[in-house]
Each structure stands twice: as C-alpha cells, then as structure tokens.
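for the recovery benchmark. tokens below, seq after
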C-alpha cells in the first residue's frame, strides 16, 4: 500500500471510531466484561 492509501484508511478508521464511539479500548473492556459474566446470566430460562 502507498502511504497515501494507508493515511486514508487511518483517517476513515478515526472517523468511524468518533461516530460509533467504539475503539480498541472499548472492545477490550467489553470482552473482559463478557468473559467475567456468569454463563447463566447469558442463557434464556430454557437454556437456549
């Protein structure tokens, strides 16, 4: 990739993060929260 392409991709990623307010830190925090959940809190009453 050219530096111009790389710069354009990084710019779009930054704009997307600003719009969605989701970045790598948010994703990692959510993964930790999900990992620490009790499986019974995730399942429906019928186990599905």
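predicted aa per position
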């Amino acid at each position: 990739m050219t530096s111009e392409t790389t710069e354009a991709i990084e710019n779009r990623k930054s704009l997307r993060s600003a719009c969605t307010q989701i970045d790598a830190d948010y994703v990692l925090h959510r993964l930790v929260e999900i990992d620490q959940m009790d499986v019974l809190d995730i399942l429906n009453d019928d186990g599905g």
